[in-house]
Amino acid sequence: MKDKVISVEQMRRSDAYTIEHFVPGKELMYRAAEGVYHSYSGWKGKRIAIFVGGGNNGGDGYALAGILRKNGIDSEVFKVSDKMSDDGRYYHDIASDMGVEIRDYDAETDLSEYQVIVDCILGTGFRGEVRGRAGEAIRAINSSGAYVISVDINSGLNGDTGEASLAVRSDLTVSIGYYKQGLFKGVSDQYIGQLTNVDIGIVLLEN
């Protein structure tokens, strides 16, 4: 069941149903971050940057930064948006209290010294053209030379069609809950290296 491929809308409804009836959103976010942590074995001894957007995808990044810190691994968080979801703010505050460095991303930021970059900028609901700081960050990530991990989907990739005009090129993409259709369609194979999925206990609603 966990290897089912579903639409973004089906995932959205299933996520909302699970949160309403079974598992709080904060717990699902933590499970997602924990799944990303366990999907990659090369964290230790690396300089790590986590790029976060303003939605729940960004919240996964804040939660991941806290999990890394709890395991004795430092990371730096770069914000590409001043917005935060409620659950995202919860994990932002925890990471900040743990001493994680969190700062705004700007075009002057030098990424050449980072060996691992985690992409938590845009989620599966993104549509259209990437603009502003998010676009600048994606270009910088793609030219960084780091090992890149995208959380749930590569930022800039359409979660249903797999189309993109600008998207993160990942070495590893960790899908959350269920694979989304866009991970296998369009130009997705030009952006995704290795692909894996993490089961976080989402109750799937059939269409």
Structural features, described:
It is a single chain. The chain is α/β, with parallel strands linked by helices and 207 residues long. 32% of the residues lie in helices and 18% in strands. The chain contains five helices and nine strands, in the order E-H-H-E-H-E-H-E-E-H-E-E-E-E. The chain has a seven-stranded parallel sheet, sandwiched between helices. Strands 1-8 form a two-stranded parallel sheet. The protein is globular, with a radius of gyration of 16 Å. The model has no long low-confidence stretch (mean pLDDT 96).
Largest sheet properties: 7 strands, parallel
Provide the domain count.
1
User: Mean pLDDT score, rounded?
Assistant: 96
Order of helices and strands: EHHEHEHEEHEEEE
Q: What is the helical fraction, as a range of percent?
A: 25-40%
CATH topology type: Rossmann fold
CATH level 1 class label: Alpha Beta
* Beta-strand fraction estimate: 15-25%
